Every structure is written in C-alpha cells, then in structure tokens.
C-alpha cells in the first residue's frame, strides 16, 4: 500500500480505517476484526473522535469508539507502534459533549486526558480540532454561510489559548502532531501563522469532506496545501455510500446508513443521484468497481494525506482495500473531470 510523507516526519498510508460506527453499527468484536485485517493489509492509520460512534449520536454511547480501540490496544500492547492513531476534541457541533459549546485550552487538556484513558495509550499521534469554534461552512452549511459576525481578535485569542495547551501536551509526550477538521483556508492559515509566532505545534493535517461528489477542497484549500505542506485526511470518500450505487433507483438496503440518517447529512437529493449515475456509468464502461474508482481517484490528488473510510462489515472492508491495486487511466480521469463539470456541487 502506498504511503504519503507529511510534515514533521509523519507518514500515512493512502487509506485510513475510520471508527465512527464502532459501538453503534459494529460490535467490539467486529471492530477488532476490522483492525486486524486493516493492519494485516498494510493500513497504518486509525481515525476516531471523542464523540463517536455516530449513526446515530447518543449521550449513552459518546466515547465508545475510543474505548473499543483502547480495548484492542490493551490486548495488543506491542502493536501500538504499528499504526498512527488520530482522534479529535469536539467542537460546537458535538451534540451531547459539553452542551455543544466547543473547546478552549483547558477543555483540550482535559479532553486529551480523557481520550488517553479510553484509548489505553500514552500518546495520540494526531490530535485534531473537530470543528472551528467560530463557525464553519461544512456539512452543507455553505449554502447560507455568513462569517461576517466573527471577531478576529477573539478568534486569535482562542487560537493562542489552544496552541498553548497543545504545546504543553506535546512537551509532555501526550500528543505528537496537530490537525484540524471541517476548517477553511483562512482558519488553517491563521492556526499556522500563530503557531509559527509562538513556536507551537503547526498544523500537519486537515480532515475535511472530500470525494467525487464533494470537491470544495480543490481551490483555496488545495493552494494552501501546496504552499504550506498541510495534507488532507479526506472523510466520506464514498459520499456516505452514495458512490457505491446502493441507493440508486430508490433502493434502501436493510441496515444501511440511510435507514437511520434519512437524508445522509444533507447529501440525499435528485442532483446527487444524477451525479452518482454519471460516475457509475464511467466505472461500468471501463470495467471498474465504482468503490475502487472513487478511492483510486483520491490517490491522484496532489494534496492527499489519506482517505478515511468506514465499513459496516468485513465484505465492505475487503472491497475498499481492493482499491489499492487499481490505477486509473488518463481516459478515465478525463471522463471524471467532465462528469464533475456537468454535476458540480451535487449536494
């Protein structure tokens, strides 16, 4: 499996195993089987968050995904160095955590300690801020996004407070790298600027949504990555299952995410299904599995760090892993670009 070299000596495989269904859709035993197979097949990254699992989020299950990973680590302590472990502190969209108020420096300190306890490890490889406290355009908020109420001085004070905490946590060996999630180009650049002024940990990754169906990263964020060395950890690389084709024609597979999250977080809609049809047609005409095509396409993007995917069962995991053997021709890539022009921002 290919790897991408990031700043600060960090190296990630092209695929990263996501855990947001562990403890809801997946049992602990199923999650542990996924970890075993992923590591066996060369994946070196597992992503989680203090608010997981989802589908749905519930107060009773918050932190369970981290606990499941921690139980595997406790049974396999010698293998902790085999993978990069990434987790996140919850921002203002965190639902049941801290009444949705987000984080500051002290919250970050406390949240790291809590995550270390659940994960049963002494260190977190990549510690990420799950949402900007000042607000975000992600998860379909872009349609009515208005940042005019933000206070730059207040935002900078908040960032400095959090960076001070991250500096102390890294000095103590509790975190190794710093990442963001659901961020904008302005946000990433300001985190970098203030970190450089203070000698604090710099942003190495940003975990934003990215797929054939969601390509907002291609412009300002791509430029930032090219110039500053930040790399993308792409989530929802299969557009929450839309790109598999399993929901086409009104289909609703039993146990699928759409049976619980009926609009797939705002992704479901006529324009989305038309776009999926275009990509499925490309895959069919070129003899490609659409899952393989979708994941292999991500590998061609110059700003990639890794693509985070989740699996409801081992068959889905095996299918995703098969993408690493697929190379897309120039003809396929050209047709993908044409489909994107015909179906921009389909949700």
Describe the structure in brief.
By secondary structure, this protein is an alpha/beta fold. The chain is 37% helix and 14% strand. It has one domain (3-240, 290-329): Alpha-Beta Barrel (TIM Barrel), CATH 3.20.20.
Describe this structure in words.
The structure is a single chain. The chain is an alpha/beta fold and 347 residues long. The protein has a single domain (3-240, 290-329), classed as Alpha-Beta Barrel (TIM Barrel). The chain contains 10 helices and 10 strands. The strands form 2 sheets. It has an 8-stranded parallel β-barrel, surrounded by 5 helices. It has a two-stranded antiparallel ribbon with strand order 1-2. Helix 4 links the parallel strand 6 (124-129) and strand 7. The longest helix has 20 residues, at 152-171. It is globular.
Furnish the topology, listing elements before pairings.
Layout: E1 3-5, E2 11-13, E3 15-18, H1 28-40, E4 45-47, H2 64-75, E5 84-89, H3 105-119, E6 124-129, H4 152-171, E7 175-181, H5 185-198, E8 203-207, H6 220-228, E9 231-234, H7 270-285, H8 290-299, E10 304-309, H9 314-321, H10 330-342
Parallel strand pairs: 3-4, 3-10, 4-5, 5-6, 6-7, 7-8, 8-9, 9-10
Antiparallel strand pairs: 1-2
Features:
TIM Barrel; eight-stranded parallel beta barrel; 347 residues; single chain; alpha/beta
Please identify, by name, the CATH architecture. Alpha-Beta Barrel
Q: How many domains, in number, for the residues?
A: 1
Distance between the termini: 32 Å
Task: Give the helix tally.
Answer: 10
Low-confidence stretches: none
Count of extended strands: 10
Q: Helix fraction?
A: 25-40%
Average pLDDT number: 96
Order of helices and strands: EEEHEHEHEHEHEHEHHEHH
Q: State the CATH topology.
A: TIM Barrel
User: What's the arrangement of strands in the largest beta sheet?
Assistant: 3-4-5-6-7-8-9-10
* CATH homologous superfamily heading: NADP-dependent oxidoreductase domain
Please state the CA-atom Rg, rounded to the nearest Å: 19 Å
Sheet having the most strands: 8 strands, parallel, barrel
| CATH class category label | Alpha Beta
Structural class call reads alpha/beta
State the shape: globular
């Amino acid at each position: 499996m290919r790897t991408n070299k990031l700043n600060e000596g960090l190296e990630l495989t092209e695929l990263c195993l996501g855990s947001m269904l562990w403890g809801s859709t997946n049992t602990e035993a199923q999650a542990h089987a996924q970890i075993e197979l992923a590591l066996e097949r060369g994946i070196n990254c597992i992503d989680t968050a203090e608010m997981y699992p989802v589908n749905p989020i519930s107060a009773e299950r918050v932190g369970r995904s981290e606990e499941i990973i921690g139980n595997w680590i406790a049974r396999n302590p010698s293998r902790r160095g085999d993978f990069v472990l990434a987790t996140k502190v919850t921002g203002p969209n965190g639902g049941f955590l801290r009444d949705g108020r987000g984080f500051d420096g002290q919250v970050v300190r406390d949240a790291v300690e809590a995550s270390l306890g659940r994960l049963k490890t002494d260190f977190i490889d990549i510690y990420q801020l799950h949402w900007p406290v000042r607000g975000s355009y992600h998860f379909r908020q872009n349609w009515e996004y208005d940042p005019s109420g933000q206070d730059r001085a207040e935002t900078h004070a908040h960032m400095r407070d959090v960076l001070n905490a991250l500096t102390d946590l890294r000095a103590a060996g509790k975190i190794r790298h710093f990442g963001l999630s659901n961020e904008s180009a302005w946000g990433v650049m300001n985190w970098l600027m203030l970190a450089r002024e203070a000698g604090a940990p710099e942003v190495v990754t940003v975990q934003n949504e990215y797929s054939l169906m969601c390509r907002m990263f291609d412009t300002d964020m791509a430029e930032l990555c090219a110039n500053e060395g930040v790399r993308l950890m792409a989530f929802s690389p299969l557009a929450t299952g839309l790109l598999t084709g399993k929901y086409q024609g009104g289909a609703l597979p039993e146990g699928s995410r759409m049976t619980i999250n009926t609009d797939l977080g705002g992704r479901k809609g006529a324009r989305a299904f038309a776009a999926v049809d275009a990509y499925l047609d490309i895959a069919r005409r070129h003899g490609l599995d659409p899952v393989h095509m979708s994941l292999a396409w991500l590998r061609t993007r110059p700003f990639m760090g890794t693509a985070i995917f989740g699996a409801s069962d081992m068959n889905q995991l095996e299918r995703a892993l098969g993408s690493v053997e697929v190379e897309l021709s120039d003809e396929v890539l050209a047709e993908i670009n044409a489909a994107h022009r015909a179906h921009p921002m389909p949700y």
